[in-house]
Amino acid sequence: EIVMTQSPTTLSVSPGERATLSCRASQRVSNSLAWYQQKPGQVPRLLIFGASTRATGIPARFSGSGSGTEFTLTISSLQSEDFAVYFCQQYNDWPLTFGGGTKVEIK
Amino acid sequence: QVQLVESGGGVVQSGGSLRLSCAASGFTFSAYGMHWVRQAPGKGLEWVAFIRYDGSNKQYSDSVKGRFTISRDNSKKTVYLQMNSLRDEDTAVYSCAKEYTDHVEYFQHWGQGTLVAVSS
User: Fold this and answer.
1) In which band, very low, low, confident or very high, does the pLDDT at B103 lie, cut at 50, 70 and 90?
2) pLDDT-based confidence at B120, cuts 50/70/90?
3) Which of A39, A68, B4, B63 has its CA 20 to 30 A from that of B39?
């Protein structure tokens, strides 16, 4: 099983600042990596697929990078609606696996 | 628009069984693989099971293999999850999700989920 490790667990950021979230895979997953945002009581929202392609309707302040085992989600200038939990997911191999999540909170 | 509506959750005793259903609409159900993903209260996401559009391939997480069975009825546009030998650690909200396309397993569309609570 490919283990996905996200860091940090919690990220405290002020509105308008940049946030950088990391996701590491225990084996290479090529670019088969997705990022999701989840707010309390809501289903996850797809942000990024293919490691760096924004999903439909996702603002340009969200960007993804990386390949192989190291991936990054960057939010260039945090808006109030961006405070949430973010999960990465690999879909290169079975079983599909998610990272444990990074909570982005208001500093 | 794509809609996925789960049902069948509830409270069940440890060792018991439940069958979850996910009714789909807004897309050609018979052309897409479907997944179940769960989330324990206050915890992260855990992928549970997958069934290919025609039922020819099924995959399970190690934590449910041998206890859970995924199936589908394309005529009813519904995917099922039969859960047997339930354990406390199976307590979670179970959501169905549509694959992006064949062999590309990320999730743009999710259902709201149904809560399964296993009591010992």
Assistant:
1) confident
2) confident
3) A68
Q: Name residue A82's amino acid.
A: D
Q: Cis ω on the peptide bond leading into residue A40 (within 30° of 0)?
A: no
Residue pLDDT, tens place only, A33-61 = 999 999 999 999 999 999 999 999 999 99
* Residue in A43, A56, A101 closest to B44 by CB: A101
Nearest chain B residue to A56 by CA: give it: B108
**Contact residues, A window 25-44, toward B, CB-based 8 Å cutoff:** 34, 36, 38, 43-44
Q: What distance in Å separates the CA atoms of residue A36 and residue A47, rounded to the nearest whole number?
A: 5
Identify all chain B residues contacting A99, using CB atoms and an 8 Å cutoff: 44
Write out the two tokens for B49.
Answer: 């099971």
